[in-house]
Structure formats: C-alpha cells, structure tokens
Amino acid sequence: MTQVSIEEYEVADAAAGPYALTTGPDGALWFTLVHSGRIGRLVPGEEPTSHRLDPGCGPTVITPGPDGALWFTEYRADRIGRITTDGVIDAFDVPTPGCGPFGIAAGPDGALWFTETAADRVGRITVDGSVTEFPLPVTGAFPSAITAGDDGAMWFTLNQGNAIGRIGMDGAITRYPVPTEAAAPVGIAAGRDGALWFTEIAAGQIGRITPDGRITEFPLPDRTAKPHAVTVDVDGTVWFTEWGGNRVGTITPDGSVTVHDLPTPGSEPHGITVGPDGALWTALEIGALARITRISLANSAT
C-alpha cells in the first residue's frame, strides 16, 4: 500500500495562471503562465525564473522538441513558440487566423504536431518553422490535447466532437466516438500498455483506447471532479488531475482508482508530468507547482 506526499512551490502570483508543464532536456521543469504571457523554469530545489512573451499571447501547452528546445502553443496569438534552454525565443505564425492552437507534442517524424481548437485542424511544424495544416472531417470538434502513440501516429482528443482522433504521418485521419455522450475528452497520454489514456472532463471518467480503436471507460468516485490532464510515470502508472475536485489521482489498467486531495483548496490543477527528479508535478492555477511523491507504508512503519 502507498500514500503520497504533496508539497506546493510558489512560482508566480495567483493571476499568472500556471497551466501546463513538462521536463526539459536541461533537468528543469518548464511551464506556461497562460494569463501573464510568460514561460517559467524551475529546477527542483532552486528559485523559479521566467521569460517574457507578448503579454496577451496566452501560452498554453509546452513540450520538449527533437531539437533540444521547448515548444509551446500561443493560444490567443495563433502562433507556435520555441524557447531554448538558455532563454532564446522564436515564434512562428500559424497560417489560419483565429485557429487557437492548444495541444502540442513531438512526433515520430522529427516535427511537432499541434491542435487548432477553433479551426478544426491538426497542424505540423518542422524545427525550422514550416507549418502544414490538416483539416478534420468534422466541424466544431475543438481538437484539444495531442500525443504520440506507439503505433507511429499522433492521437488527439476532440473535446466538442466527443471522439478520439488519430492522424498518421501521411495526414490520414480516423475518428473513434467516445461511448458516453457529451463526455468532452481533454487530456491524452500514451500508456506503457500500448494504449492511449484520456480524460473525460464532463463525464467524470478516465478512458482508454487501444490502437485499433476499442474504448473502455472508467468512472471516477466523484463524477463531478472534471478530470483534465493525464500522464504516465516510469512504472506505467497513469496519473490525472481533477480540476473540479482539487485532487490528483491514479488509475490501474483494470480501472482501480485512487485519488489524493491537494493541500490548498480551490488550487485548480491543470497539467501534470513526471519531473526531472522522478516525482510527479502538477501546475496549479493559483500560482504554484505541486510535487507529488509516493510513500511506501511498509518502508515508513516503525
């Protein structure tokens, strides 16, 4: 049996809005400050720093790129940003105006793939800034998070289309409807079991989809918890945030769920990732990052 220890580290004021985070190649956590237009950096045990962008650009999701830099979406500016580990920033316009780029992830082809929430498209950007866009076969679907699958394709959530999408490196798109009506999938991550795991923010469930499109849904103890983001740790454990429940949780492949309350009420957890120190870290919109470590009760017994 295990319990968790949760510590919070203030990285910005409450109005700045830490939203998503990832581990960079430099052994630091990099995170977006969506409301203040900044990219933050935190080495565990040190003081946070940040880099200024256009104040209103709305940096949203951030991910390591194949070129050793960090790449991020600028939701309000319709741009894809790039920041090196020493703080040099570039930005690349997405051709479609008003597209609202959101999710971004490195693909198996050496490029970055991203979603365009307001334009019903998936985009691809090379490390030199060349952008290609792929229209979805539906409208109003609000493509959201995206990740690379073990099958050599990119998988993404269709928040308003109530489906999971798959796009191959040739641009071919397949949609898989989520069984629960109006479940509003958001976060998605590749598991170590060959499947993809995703959150259903409106249904209070965690979903699992196999590469051939078979979906299993697991209801959470609190169906109003609004699960938001999901990640997988080195042991294959699936972790998720409950934005509405102020909790983080885990789920096993057979659907066993454990949830843990965050220390500060109303902290609004969003992104979650494995940190450079092996712990789980989540971004709290109140201006902090939370560090989650597992404690074995057998080892702590006296």
Strand adjacency order, main sheet? 1-28-27-26
Residue runs with pLDDT of under 50 for 5 or more positions: none
Beta-strand content estimate: over 45%
Tell me the number of helical segments per DSSP (H or I, 4 or more residues long).
1
Shape: globular
The main sheet comes to: 4 strands, antiparallel
Structure description:
With 302 residues, the chain is mainly β. It has one domain: Methylamine Dehydrogenase, Chain H. 1% of the residues lie in helices and 51% in strands. The strands form 7 sheets. A 4-stranded antiparallel sheet has the order 1-28-27-26. A 4-stranded antiparallel sheet has the order 2-3-4-5, with no helix packed on it. A 4-stranded antiparallel sheet has the order 6-7-8-9, with no helix packed on it. β19 (196-200) and β20 (205-209) form a beta hairpin. The longest helix has 4 residues, at 297-300. It is globular. It starts with a strand and ends with a helix. 50% of the residues are buried. The model has no long low-confidence stretch (mean pLDDT 96).
List keywords for this structure.
mainly beta, Methylamine Dehydrogenase, Chain H
Secondary-structure map:
Blueprint: E1 2-10, E2 18-23, E3 29-33, E4 38-42, E5 49-52, E6 59-64, E7 70-74, E8 79-83, E9 89-93, E10 101-106, E11 112-116, E12 121-125, E13 131-135, E14 143-148, E15 154-158, E16 163-167, E17 173-177, E18 185-190, E19 196-200, E20 205-209, E21 215-219, E22 227-232, E23 238-242, E24 247-251, E25 257-261, E26 269-274, E27 280-284, E28 288-296, H1 297-300
